[in-house]
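Chain A, query sequence.
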Amino acid sequence: MQQGNNKPFSFMAQAFSYDKNKNSGTNLNNNNTSEVSRKNLLNSLNDLFQQTFLEKLKNWNRLHEQSIEYLTSYIQYVNFLHDYNINNSNNNNTGEEGLTISLTTKLKKSHEDLFNIVQEFYKVVEELKEILNQMKNKIILFIEKNNKDSNSSPTNSSEITSTDNNEKITELLLSKGSYHLEMNCFDYLNDCNNYLEMLENELDFKTIVFQSLNEYENTFVLNNYFISWKKQCFLSLDKIREMEMKWKLNEKIKLNI
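Chain A, predicted structure.
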């Protein structure tokens, strides 16, 4: 199963390391300018999240419903074939050969349908990874821009350390707005990363199930496969509900600001 990586603060350490040699240690030149820049970043992250990430999640859900139909058909054809073979094991009725061929053809088709849909699941996961990377890149650009602005800005105060400057940028990225209820930059990364981890683990499971399917499997095992596939055990409903509540609250706050 996939393991968690690229957590926000680990990512922050990597992002700041890109500019540590450029940073002269001066303070952020203008708090108002930095706040505007932060809001612009948040709006950009929110657009990516709402218009692309959540839309891709809808694709996953659509594919999941379709895959249930394909798996149901596959199991039905396996059972039909089992019953037919048992009922005709002592029969040499060649007139029934056409039915066997028909069932085998339909079984093969449902197996191919499942294969294709598993590939579609992989595409969705890769697209979600790309969206997450785009978010990270936007944050890196924000950090680089603020470091650049602080380097080029005159200051009347005594020299501030590079660590102090990075802490101020971190505060901007962690800010939850004037009401302290909005999603901050790390919330977007956290939620996308957590959701992606669950989908990767679920996809690993679906892949294993698909690779285990065969027409000689007994009904009990196939039914267990089906129940687990349909339930999506690696998607934590509690965690998803919690995230969805936060997303809805964030949208309400943004509409009322």
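Residues 31-87 form the longest helix (57 residues). The chain has a mean pLDDT of 83.
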